[in-house]
Amino acid sequence: HDAIVNLPGATPVRAKLMGRATEALDSLRSSAGGNVAIQHELAAAYERLAGVQGGPQEFNLGELANSLKNYQNALALLEQVRKSSPGDLNAARSMAGIEWMISTIFERQGDVKGAASMAQKALDLREILARAEPRKEQAKRDLAMAYYLRGNTAVTAGDLVTARAVRQKALALWESIAADEPGDPKAGYQIALAAKTLAAVEQVFHDYGSAARHLERAHAIDRERVRVDPRDASARLDVSFDLSELAGLALQTGDPAQAAKYYVEARKIREDLLAHDAGNERLQNRVAYIRSREGRVHLQLGHLKAARAAFVRALDIRQKIASDRTNISAQLDLAESQGDLGVWSCTAGDRQGGKALLRRALARMDEIDRRSPLNFETRQDVEETRRQLSACE
Q1: Is 235 helix (H, G, I), strand (E, B) or coil?
Q2: Are 26 and 288 spatial neighbours (Cβ–Cβ below 8 Å)?
Q3: Separation of alpha carbons 225 and 189, rounded Å
Q4: What is the pLDDT of residues 98-118, one digit of tens each?
Q5: Do residues 283 and 62 touch, judged by C-beta distance below 8 A?
Q6: What pLDDT is recorded for position 256?
Q7: Fewest beta carbons less than 10 Å away: which of 24, 258, 277, 385?
Q8: In this structure, are residues 244 and 263 in contact, taking their beta carbons and an 8 Å threshold?
Q9: 325-363 core/surface letters (b: 16 or more CB in 10 A; e: else)
Q10: Is 171:195 a contact under the CB 8 Å cutoff?
């Protein structure tokens, strides 16, 4: 599994491999009893299978319900370990990581309270681990991840001051870790990730110079990862994230033409990855996102034909992903694409068609809000769609 995890097109094979591994370990579950080693091994297998099925940080098959079930299986096993061995820090460390993944799936399913609760549990565990092993490098990494988690939950809640502060701490701590372990590729990856997330908040506070420095640094790190291993699909995808963020910054600073160039470059990377791994739901989602953003820039520049082509491609992908009604994130993405095409129609002179699409998008958002309250960021998107409808009318 580990040998092929980043190879293009490997997602179905990974699922099959991990399915077989889990079946083998499943047969031991009933007879494992209090065997901590077997419980750890089985939990790790469930966690890996869940990652292949719908893990938010890796290429996956988009099976959120199955992914959640297997993350919960892993968590239950580790909770048994902690009951029998309260001092097992490895179990606590694994639990914190799984709780974070479950939090992310809850968020994608629209369970905002469940996501926040699980994220807080993960944060609490990581802080306990950091206090228990203050001199260990792994403890520093756990604390850095705790800051990262806290930053995410703060953004979701709309507390951007806290998000900025903890993301600065996360970046500083990862830099310290990298200094202690020069050449560690994982530390470099985390520095790039921390820099990107901090840059996003810096833009909210209009500190565009700082945001640009952080994004350029992340881009340089990720490009080096690709240079070292051109077959590393995760590194290539990360480069596309850098380009997308740089495009957003270019828009903030009034350069839509440069933003369009960044988006095109990012989109080409993602579409090439998807061509080699067509069943990968995460890549499908990322291609749809970049197409949507590319379309918006083309519309801003007056390139109506290119904008419509990008919007239609995004809509086609999102309609397929949204066939899973439990995936609230996919439902909101579909509404976004309907809204994009509505704005395009209004701009192109078809006000009746545009208003119909925008109303359909708002109806979908309102229906989702009734099922599960929207978070801070999504509510901003809803208000923007309402403004667009008002403008079209």
Answers
A1: helix
A2: no
A3: 8
A4: 998 999 898 888 787 788 888
A5: no
A6: 97
A7: 24
A8: yes
A9: eebbbbbbbbbbbbbbbbbbbbbeeeeebbbebbbbbbe
A10: yes
Q: How many angstroms from the chain centroid is the CA of residue 295?
A: 21
Residue 33 to residue 15: CA distance in whole angstroms: 27
Collapsing DSSP to helix, strand or coil, 303 comes out as coil
What's 155's DSSP letter?
A: H
pTM here? 0.76
Q: What is the DSSP string of 55-118?
A: -TTS-----HHHHHHHHHHHHHHHHHHHHH-TT-HHHHHHHHHHHHHHHHHHHHTT-HHHHHHH
Alpha-carbon Rg of the chain, whole angstroms?
A: 22
Tokens of 342: 């509505």
Contact 368, 328 (CB under 8 A): yes
**246-to-14, 96, 272, 286, 302 alpha-carbon distances in Å:** 32, 32, 20, 16, 21
Residue 152, both tokens: 């995410």
Handedness of CA 367, 368, 370, 375 (dihedral sign): negative
Q: Is the dihedral of CA 186, 188, 194, 196 positive or negative?
A: negative
Distance between CA atoms of residues 302 and 297, nearest Å = 9
pLDDT at residue 78 is higher than 90: yes
Q: Which two tokens stand for residue 77?
A: 């096993």
Lookup: tokens for 173:
């701590």
The residue assigned the tokens 């699409």 is 357
CB 225 within 8 A of CB 186: no
Give the position of tokens 């990974």.
Answer: 14
Which pLDDT band holds residue 158 (cuts at 50, 70, 90)? confident
Q: Residue 303 corresponds to which amino acid?
A: H
**Count of beta carbons in the 10 Å neighbourhood of residue 162:** 16
